[in-house]
Amino acid sequence: MNTQANWGIHTLVKELRDIRVQSLETRERLNKPPKLPSRKKLTQILEGLSGALFPNRLGRPDLRDEVIDYFVGNTLDTALRDLHEQIHRELHFMAEQKNVVQLTEYDAKTIVRKFAAQLPRIRKLLDTDIQAAYQGDPAARTPDETLVCYPGINAMIHQRIAHVLYQLGVPLTARMITELAHSSTGIDIHPGAEIGESFFIDHGTGVVIGETTVIGNRVRLYQAVTLGAKRFEQADDGSLVKGNARHPIVEDDVVIYAGATILGRITIGRGSVIGGNVWLTHSVPPESNITQALLRSELIP
Amino acid sequence: MNTQANWGIHTLVKELRDIRVQSLETRERLNKPPKLPSRKKLTQILEGLSGALFPNRLGRPDLRDEVIDYFVGNTLDTALRDLHEQIHRELHFMAEQKNVVQLTEYDAKTIVRKFAAQLPRIRKLLDTDIQAAYQGDPAARTPDETLVCYPGINAMIHQRIAHVLYQLGVPLTARMITELAHSSTGIDIHPGAEIGESFFIDHGTGVVIGETTVIGNRVRLYQAVTLGAKRFEQADDGSLVKGNARHPIVEDDVVIYAGATILGRITIGRGSVIGGNVWLTHSVPPESNITQALLRSELIP
Amino acid sequence: MNTQANWGIHTLVKELRDIRVQSLETRERLNKPPKLPSRKKLTQILEGLSGALFPNRLGRPDLRDEVIDYFVGNTLDTALRDLHEQIHRELHFMAEQKNVVQLTEYDAKTIVRKFAAQLPRIRKLLDTDIQAAYQGDPAARTPDETLVCYPGINAMIHQRIAHVLYQLGVPLTARMITELAHSSTGIDIHPGAEIGESFFIDHGTGVVIGETTVIGNRVRLYQAVTLGAKRFEQADDGSLVKGNARHPIVEDDVVIYAGATILGRITIGRGSVIGGNVWLTHSVPPESNITQALLRSELIP
Amino acid sequence: MNTQANWGIHTLVKELRDIRVQSLETRERLNKPPKLPSRKKLTQILEGLSGALFPNRLGRPDLRDEVIDYFVGNTLDTALRDLHEQIHRELHFMAEQKNVVQLTEYDAKTIVRKFAAQLPRIRKLLDTDIQAAYQGDPAARTPDETLVCYPGINAMIHQRIAHVLYQLGVPLTARMITELAHSSTGIDIHPGAEIGESFFIDHGTGVVIGETTVIGNRVRLYQAVTLGAKRFEQADDGSLVKGNARHPIVEDDVVIYAGATILGRITIGRGSVIGGNVWLTHSVPPESNITQALLRSELIP
Amino acid sequence: MNTQANWGIHTLVKELRDIRVQSLETRERLNKPPKLPSRKKLTQILEGLSGALFPNRLGRPDLRDEVIDYFVGNTLDTALRDLHEQIHRELHFMAEQKNVVQLTEYDAKTIVRKFAAQLPRIRKLLDTDIQAAYQGDPAARTPDETLVCYPGINAMIHQRIAHVLYQLGVPLTARMITELAHSSTGIDIHPGAEIGESFFIDHGTGVVIGETTVIGNRVRLYQAVTLGAKRFEQADDGSLVKGNARHPIVEDDVVIYAGATILGRITIGRGSVIGGNVWLTHSVPPESNITQALLRSELIP
Amino acid sequence: MNTQANWGIHTLVKELRDIRVQSLETRERLNKPPKLPSRKKLTQILEGLSGALFPNRLGRPDLRDEVIDYFVGNTLDTALRDLHEQIHRELHFMAEQKNVVQLTEYDAKTIVRKFAAQLPRIRKLLDTDIQAAYQGDPAARTPDETLVCYPGINAMIHQRIAHVLYQLGVPLTARMITELAHSSTGIDIHPGAEIGESFFIDHGTGVVIGETTVIGNRVRLYQAVTLGAKRFEQADDGSLVKGNARHPIVEDDVVIYAGATILGRITIGRGSVIGGNVWLTHSVPPESNITQALLRSELIP
Fold first, then answer.
1. Is the separation of the CB atoms in C295 and A293 below 8 Å?
2. Which chains touch A (3 or more CB pairs under 8 A)?
3. Per the confidence metrics, is the pTM higher than 0.95?
4. Other chains touching F, judged by 3 or more CB pairs under 8 Å
5. What are the chain D neighbours of F273 within 8 Å (beta carbons)?
6. What topology does CATH give the domain F206-301?
7. Which tens digits make up the pLDDT trace of B183-209?
8. CATH number of the structural domain E32-187
9. Are F147 and F54 in contact (CB under 8 A)?
10. In which region does residue C271 sit, left (phi positive, over 0), alpha (psi from -120 to 50) or beta (all else)?
């Protein structure tokens, strides 16, 4: 096959350069290219942290007790060093965005150190999630299998790690981590969401949980549930107000069935059951049992 | 960049060990690490089996008739040997869970041999699915293209393979295989589901089909359809009753439009059409045409 | 582990051959194996094109102004040469399907050249999408981060590239490209859809946009929105009529909330707001505000 | 680390272009880049051919009798197709060098077909080499181990394959193949050399065997032996005369010890033994036993 | 490029099968394929062991004191487990060769455990070699650089590891390891050779050191030195007698310059200096200074 | 296979730590791990530089004139950035060795910039080497093929690049680069050697050229030639004197045949021919023709 064709590369390169120069991208930063965290590197980091948290099941199979700590220590070190570089990139990028004086190396290190100290707590929380998945799904035969094949567990490993990073001040890295889970599970949980222990999402595709959502203990969700904002507040200049509480509070022991849409800063009282496809924009008291008004189905002869 | 920071690895390693020792993970199995099937290896196995089933389109391009059988035989051998090891892991893992006497090597081999014997039947079923996709989608130009780009076909390759494994007694391996498809297509079909020929899922994101679902021939589904359980039966001790028939029976020639939710051990009679977003928890007779009660939309001035 | 078992490979190979010979696959093409475009190669091509369009953020980090054009030119060349081969495969495959005289090399080259010339326009459109994402989501801190972690932006990079290819006469390559995005984002936009500038999809899982959809400028969509066909027209012989306009027209400045289903060749007038979960099969005038009839939720004590 | 430095890329690119334009490289071939065979691809091809010739020991371990032919057939097909492309490149390149009319595709195919037909003969010759290595080295415990770890065997696999290609008219591809062995073994045998059966080179580093060398059966060589040209004939214009017989003929059953240098078109008679470090530029009759004149070593107190 | 040619694969596969069946390869082992140690795997194992022995310089750069033991422990575990499998293969292969009853798993484990216990001693010996290289070469600036770029050090890492394995009864694995070094350095030291501390080989290409060689402390060698056998003893039946002492003994503090050839079970007395290109087949007393008889060079006008 | 054995890792890790602490390695640098240049990275850098110098033949095949500069610029940038990091490592490492104040980033950048400016000159010199190889070997058909398969050319690409780096003050990086060539060609040229244009080494295995060697124009060498030091000068304290001129000067148009050993700071006069295996330790005037005293070979009947 003769592939000697000319594609007009010179013109293309020039046109693309002109666009870059005009666009927001380069307005203030010729020769100061933004160096964003790397999606690929974060994928590796999450694999490393998952392996360190659950060495035998997500790390290396067949680790004997003799060597498990060496594996954990070594895997943690690699993952934390790589995470440090990604966090450094975010801090540097944000500082440039804000024309802030360059952050010191100290900040990235402090964040990694504080993050690392939370890993045991993250592991404990994930153990409760695993147990909840095992107990909540009649198809699960052992807790172990939920760890290797339930998308809900995979999503929570990402979110619980990302949530700590979000709280420590690196929201972009955190968001990129939850997007990794979104991409592979279809479950979209914002890293800002606060989620209690023993949380279980079954099937999961299409679940959306917003930034300021608060979820209690022992909550169970099914696929396509939305915990979203009702509407966005606008400032006087028409721009969106960012950061205010705008997503639901879900108290302990609530179950929300597939396709339910719950919007706004409302409270779902403890122990409530929200039926499938329900559309809910107001608070409900504890122990409520909300179902969709039955739709009459018409038989057409 | 100076990366000489200390992350407190010693403390972390110790804390994570303490958690492992206390948790369910290691309670009874210090030095008996569970060796679960490997997601990565199963991905390769499915690529191999897909290539052997459809050598030119999913295997190696440009295979001449002279060599196609060599490719198929060699690819099958690799895939079946690798599958044998994964099945061996599951049987071994399950035996330890149940404190059963160690299974013999014989079992894993028998399962692989029985599975292999089903591959021609799987191929024939998939041919009917491909034909159904081609006929059911006005955008499809050739049957071949449905094989290389329709997520519904991809999901069915995984499910039909996993279903045979599920029936042969390796449900974890089977589940991990359907979860591979779930992750890349958003279509979540349990390996236990029994599905007839000429099955077509269009778009597919958000489809959930439960473990005991039974689907006839020539059924068509759109995105976000749920064939689920209405509620889980509980035993006297409050634990979930596992394994009983709890998902719908969908008879031949049924069409179910996007977003329909069909729950419980009900029967959708042959030839029925279920409209988009319908919520259905009772059986309907053959040739039913169910649509959602029309929702009045209010115009707000 | 003794893996010397026999799997019955000879029989399997023979049976699979018999099926291939009987099936549609080989009926007319023994020794003329179809060589379809490669999903793996298209993934690389899209990475290359993304990197050339957004060199610093999706290409190589830390590109100085001195070398950025070298990177862009070199990356474009590789991507376009590889694309040329994929397009050649599709044209060749389609020619064989139709028993058409073999297409000349000239066609594939012309298509690549015309496609390349559209890249600057694609970049400009994507810049408007990025700006729309930044302005439309209160959680976004900078436009840059929408480019590296918003699935809606990722989906639009794929669709805008695929759309140009679709118009140039290689619909299979185009479809395979949008399916790459579908698989990683859960957003399924047909390459045929015509989409204006400043288009933003938030969360996105479950969005389906059909082949003949027309979308204006500054439109915003949330997860699980369907812009689909109401029903497929059938020809007298029962086969589906392909290619006619059957999906909605969405005018400028429309917002469509999560889960809304809009079917058929209807028009959503400029500036309208379609509420969550709305089911809509008729046109609505400009500035309409459609919400679901409020479903009464019954409290069960 | 700040890596924003400018390296002066623009100037460099320009200077390198100027040199290319002036140099022999591009004199007549702007836009006709020479496409030479690829060293990396040839490495893979040799791995494939080695695996097909010795499937269990150099191919895939643990191939059962049931599948070995599938492996061989499939591996051969891949290797021969890749080889075909490399040969095509050489023929094309040489045609351009000579301003010859473009060669037809037919030539490359014919060469590959003729080459393939020689593979069984190559295998038989290599079996005699393996047996010779086993019998000739007291350290060898089994014939199999000479195949996996003796550099002399590795070199002969390459040379015997390359020799057939050399005879079929693709000397560059042939030379690149023997250079692969030269690089990994330090044994430099020209593909033109004609070598009989049961040939054994022990240790091998530094062995050089020239283009027109002829070696009989059951010959044994040690490291650093040179079978070279004495001097190069010059044509009247001072250029070297290419292709005439200028290297030794070594008859059957000769042994040549380490470091011996044998130069020119001389004949080493059948059954001769040439001692270590001997320098030999004249023929010797059969059964000769040549040793270096003993060098008196002087003891210095 | 049309690559649809037929290569005659069927005939080839059949012919190669016939040869295999007739040849020594399969005579007694249809369906009992020999599973030899893997060169590729041994390469990885040597990288692992080198990294564990010299963690910062051959392992991972920038290991802080906090994590170095985790790296060493984890790397050792991986390398030793992989080595265990290779050793198991050799024992199994050898048992089949000798029609010996299958060896138990116990043997391979014992060998690995005994090997592991020698690693600290190997490290200490290598430290003396590194120091010798630094002191012996005027071009060396630091001991560290000899470790990362001197082929002599690389060869000794391989040989000292292989020697322990050779002594523990796995000579094939040992030989394959020294051949790895032979291939990359041109230095061919048999794993059987016994070598004292502070051993230094400069340049090294072409060095050959035989199986029963014994080398004292502080010996220095240059390129192309051979410590070989004079001739092989033959048994009455003409086969080679294997295993008897047939290579030189080199006592402490000897220096041997480039190209010297020393053959047979002779002794080079302590402190001797052997000049370049010397050919030596008899013992020399301590403190000897052997030089080549000066060759008169003739000037040709 | 049960691989649950314990290898005694804890003891091993501890013993290896004790050795490290005692040894020279860590005496002064706990927590200051030396970060040496990386062999693997330098391999990539050399591939990049080779590709930039000879884009079509060692870079990417089939580069059209339209894109060749983009390839060169982009490849150079990557290679130079990576080289910058390796140089930075060496400078940092050396500074620590000497307890020198930390070098500034400026130094590494200056070195890279000066090195880059030499690349056109390196390319021109290599063009003369290629031409010399083509003219010097009767087996060479085109200059191009010497570039892709002659080890002598490969060695000179490495040495000419390394020599510039050696002169710029990074001798360790330079040495590691020539060792890459040594490993793959068996040709060991010190980066310090000064070599004129049109230099050709045929076969090459075993060639050694020392640090202070000076070689004129149009010199030709064969395999196993040594240009070495006669003896090392010792300082009063017995340590070796480093850096003084101790290797031969070879004037223009000299030919040195295989196995010749030339030692000490002697001069081989212009136009001389040194015969094979000659041992030479004194200067010879121009146009000398040195051959080995003919060794009488004794025929043993």
1. yes
2. B, C, E, F
3. no
4. A, C, D, E
5. none
6. UDP N-Acetylglucosamine Acyltransferase; domain 1 (2.160.10)
7. 999 999 999 999 999 999 999 999 999
8. 1.10.3130.10
9. yes
10. left
